[in-house]
Amino acid sequence: MVKQLKTIKADFPILDQKVNDEQLVYLDNAATTQKPKAVVEALDHYYYHDNANVHRGVHTLAERATEQFEAARQKVADFINAGDKKNILFTRGTTQSLNWIAASYGEATIHEGDEIVISYMEHHSNLVPWQQLALRKKAVLKYIGMNEDGTLDMADAKKQITDKTKIVSIAHVSNVLGVVNPIKQLASIAHQHGAIMVGDGAQSVPHMPIDVQDLDVDFYAFSGHKMLGPTGIGVLYGKTSLLEAMPPIEFGGEMIDFVDLYESSWKELPWKFEAGTPDISGAIGLGAAIDYLSEIGMDQIEKHEQDIVNYVLPKLLAIDDLEIYGPKDPSKHTGVIAFNLKGLHPHDLATALDMEGVAVRAGHHCAQPLMKYLNVPATARASFYFYNDSNDADRLVDAILAAKEFFKHGTV
Ligand code: PMP
């Protein structure tokens, strides 16, 4: 890394605190990431010096706010190689981005008997919008299965995607199994059948270099808060021809060109979809997050996280009675690691780890169909980011061993 890990941790003041008398180890990055000083300072600076509404005023502050807001859009476009900033729509997050595709593209193009193909490992936000669209339209929702190790079954993908398929929508990285799905290959299969490919990038964009044109996805969704940015800002990338053909989803200020009593016309892309005052500071904060990530380099971030996985996964696999979900081969596993300790509810395990200062998540991770597929009610989940190190990994392993020892004589 260009920046040393030590200096990176110093950029995140929140990490420097004790929780339950222990130095905090934050391993809940798949839920949300911490914010470096540079992002918080960008928000501060905007509100202290430049705050105004965008695209409306001719005064200096309005011009500054507009310039920074649109510069942030350009940064997002460059970060995922979108080609043009008109292909970048600001949303509230991945959930809203995916809902927008279903509400606009889906509503306009899906008819009775059409097929929508997703997988068993989808987050609810890449499942329920399609499920509800299919119910509304009498379309057929189909699921791609998984191999034993939790990777996507590509032979099944080829069976499920047919000439009736109109939309394929898959997580690029699973928020439970930690697998990377072959989005480029899926896009190629979808396109051979005349379907569009949607990528849920919530767990990929923060952790690896992404080139949406190379992936040849038609839409791609992600959240600012999972990549150092503020909560409340997200992105929907779409190909120009699709976005141009799509009707707006919401109506009001900002998105109109001309309004008459009985008809109106819309602004050009991307503003056609952004009704009302947008999350201006959120976009500016996301821009600052992208600057920070780019300074380190996404390839370096990916490599550092892979090094941690190579280090920690064998240690976790060596713990008796600890079930790890997803691939056992570290080269197939990202820094999202879900697990259960035999005989202990994951919430109790997460509480025990918190007592050791180690923050992990427990629950169904908004993936109830996946829990059913795995035949478990819930799991604990540790998720690493580039500001974590091997010491954090050791603390996780030690805390699990301590919990195991503690509960050995306990209630279960
Ligand atoms: N998809 C995946 C794979 C996710 O991990 C998440 C967040 N856990 C989402 C979608 C939804 O993201 P958000 O809550 O930021 O809209």
Describe this protein's structure.
Keywords: Pyridoxal phosphate, Transferase. 40% of the residues lie in helices and 17% in strands. It is built from 14 helices and 17 strands. Helix 2 packs antiparallel against helix 10 and helix 11 runs parallel beside helix 14. It is globular, with a radius of gyration of 22 Å.
Indicate the topology.
Layout: H1 5-10, E1 18-19, E2 22-23, E3 25-26, H2 37-50, H3 60-79, E4 88-91, H4 94-109, E5 115-119, H5 128-137, E6 140-144, H6 154-160, E7 165-171, H7 183-192, E8 196-200, H8 212-215, E9 219-223, E10 234-238, H9 240-245, E11 256-259, E12 264-266, H10 280-296, H11 298-317, E13 322-324, E14 336-341, H12 346-355, E15 358-359, E16 361-363, H13 368-374, E17 379-383, H14 390-408
Parallel strand pairs: 3-15, 5-6, 5-7, 7-8, 8-9
Antiparallel strand pairs: 1-2, 4-10, 9-10, 11-12, 13-14, 14-17, 16-17
